Amino acid sequence: MSKFLVAPSMLSSDFSDLNAEIKKIDEAGADWIHWDVMDGHFVPNLTFGAPVIKKTRKCTDTFFDVHLMIEKPEFFLNDFVEAGSDQITFHVESSTKIKDCFDYLRKKGIKKGITLRPGTDLKTLDPYLADSDVILVMTVEPGFGGQSFMEDQIEKIEKLKEIREEKGYNYLIEVDGGVSEKTAPLIKSADVLVAGSYVFKNDYKTAIDSLKIIKS
Ligand code: DX5
Ligand code: ZN
After folding, report:
1. pLDDT per residue of the chain (216 residues) written in tens, 0 to 9
2. Ligand 1 pocket test target in 15, 147, 151, 183 with most atoms within 8 Å of CB
3. Staple partner for 25: which of 13, 30, 75, 146, CB 3.0–4.6 Å?
4. 163: region left, alpha or beta (phi > 0 left; psi from -120 to 50 alpha)
């Protein structure tokens, strides 16, 4: 892949007019739309659930990349599948039933990914790497937009690329947290960049283009 895919995070959008925001990021060239679902337990913040995703699904065909920051995602997967998610990623720390979740998503034909908090060892993902469509590397503590990029997570991104080459795995490497035109050059081993504040606090197209240019 020669260019980054860019996935604006709706967490930083204007929640009072989601359809208009989606239309604007579509026109600005978003490759994926990233949805940050938080339950107030797994992370100390609450956002939205499957009904919001379902309603907005009607206004775009763009790939819906759903990042679950919730405890026991196995209880909610069906809702997010029915809502029209194209890909669902959940945290390795959030469930003891990750294999079951993967099996379920495979059966439903939905792409599946796994992610981890910055303090979690990459080795915890070993049992899931072969089956993952995406590995999401958190470069901030999950819960809030607008935090600073954690450079000490770059090693994980490099390592994931190395493992993929060595073992012939197929996952994409996605990076989430503090991504901007300043930090993207540090993570050229990644394939997909999530960007919340950077896109929504600037001109959307200029911000998205600036990220795409960095790897091309
Ligand atoms: C944090 C979320 C991120 C967040 C990124 O828990 O997973 O997707 O929206 O926001 P920025 O790009 O502002 O760091
Ligand atoms: Zn996210």
Report:
1. 689 999 999 999 999 999 999 999 999 999 999 999 999 999 999 999 999 999 999 999 999 999 999 999 999 999 999 999 999 999 999 999 999 999 999 999 999 999 999 999 999 999 999 999 999 999 999 999 999 999 999 999 999 999 999 999 999 999 999 999 999 999 999 999 999 999 999 999 999 999 999 998
2. 147
3. 30
4. alpha
Active site residues: 36, 176
CA atoms of 174 and 192, how far apart (whole Å): 4
Distance 153 CA to ligand 2 centre (A): 15
Predicted model pTM:
0.98
Distances 173 to 18, 30, 56, 162, 196 between C-alpha atoms, Å: 27, 17, 26, 11, 17
Strand, helix or coil for residue 209: helix
Q: Which atom of ligand 1 is nearest to the CA of 12?
A: 9
Q: Are strands 5-8 and 192-195 parallel, antiparallel or unpaired?
A: parallel
Q: What is the DSSP letter of 182?
A: T
**Cross-strand pairs, 116:** 137
Domains, the chain, ranges and CATH? 5-211 (3.20.20.70)
Q: What's the rounded Cα separation, in Å, for the pair 207 and 209?
A: 6
